[in-house]
Structures are given as C-alpha cells and as structure tokens.
Amino acid sequence: MLILRRLPVILFIGLVLPTATLAGTRATQADVNQKVAALEDREAIRQLLIDYGRTLDARDFAGFAELFAADAVYAGGGPGGAAHGPQAIRQMLENTFKANPSGVSGPNFHLFFNAVTDLDGDTATSTSKGAFVIQSADTRPDLLILATYHDKLVRENGRWKFSRREVLSDIPAPVRPAAR
Predict the structure, then answer these.
(1) Parent domain of 72
(2) What distance in Å separates the CA atoms of residue 54 and residue 61, rounded to the nearest whole number?
(3) What is the sign of the dihedral through the CA atoms of 129, 150, 37 and 26?
(4) Is residue 2 in some structural domain?
C-alpha cells in the first residue's frame, strides 16, 4: 500500500528529473557528456600535479620522467636552466637531489595547492602553488621552498602530461655550504 502512495513520486523522479534543466537550459546528452569529460580531464590533471610531488618524494625519477610529454621542457627546477625531454628532465632532477644544495636530510614532502586549470581540447594551462616541507633540527615541519608553477599540458597517448613546467621561486631554498 505504501508503494502505491509513493508511485507518483517515483514516476516523477524517473520521468521528469532526467529532462531537468542545467543553468536554465535543457541539458542534452551531449552537454552532459561534455561536462563529464571536462570533469574527468580536470581530475586527471589534478592527479598529474599530485604525482609530480609523489614521485619526487619517493625519489622515483623514472616515474617522474613519465609525467612529461616527449618534447617537454622543464624550466627553473634546478641549476643550468631548462631541460628538454623526459630523460634530460629526469637527469637534471637526479643531479639536483644528489647534489643536495640545501643540505636537506630526513623526511621531506612536496605539497600542492591553489591550482587553476583552463582546458582547451587536448591542451590545457594550469597555475598552482607548491611548498617543499622538511623536518627541522628539532623535528618540527619547516617550510623550505614556496614556488609558483606555470604549466602547459597536453594529452599524449590518452594521458595528460606536462609539455612545459616552469617553476618560479617565491621563497627560494637556502644554499647551505657543503659539509667538510
């Protein structure tokens, strides 16, 4: 008996809501598909930004290189200017971490926030902030670097990758003298 009383509500939900409007206009399946695709692209790009920090924190330089398109440019992430191509980018980051110019030891982590992404088909641009946090001598978290990232992104073989990543230092890392 209860189901019969709720039948009109169930029919309304099943028949009327699928034809509901979005932003005052009737949404077509193509509109919905386009919006879902944009959300999926934004999520994939968000994951790319997170994977950048995750691979660096794990010192997974091979995984790091895979985040970059075949003709990618990485500028500002280390000494010597820009690196071109995934393998050169990998080598530059390996060398930077090996040289350890800031004298970082112990746990350290990359954090990313405030990403703004503009999609344009199979390309996109993004600007975000990043922080590099280390453990201080008294074991408290210590902000070592604050940076702004300007990215050009491309969908390559179905995956979003960096085609250009420019790192601008807002608060640069201190250069500590090498231990003798």
Answers:
(1) 30-171
(2) 10
(3) positive
(4) no
Query: 123 has which bridge partners?
Result: 120, 154
pLDDT tens sequence across 165-174:
999 989 877 7
Q: Which residues contact 47 (CB under 8 A, 6 or more apart)?
A: none
Reported residue count of the chain is: 180
Q: What is the mean pLDDT of the chain?
A: 84
Q: Confirm whether 10 is domain-assigned.
A: no
CATH number at residue 125: 3.10.450.50
The number of folded domains in the chain is 1
d(CA 98, CA 91): 10
Q: What is the pLDDT, as a whole number, of residue 24?
A: 56
Tell me which residue has tokens 């393998």.
Answer: 87
| Inter-residue contact 129 to 146 (CB < 8 Å) | yes
In a domain, residue 123? The reply is yes
Per-residue pLDDT at 17 exceeds 80: no
H/E stretch holding 89: helix 86-99
Query: Is residue 180 a part of any domain in this protein?
Result: no
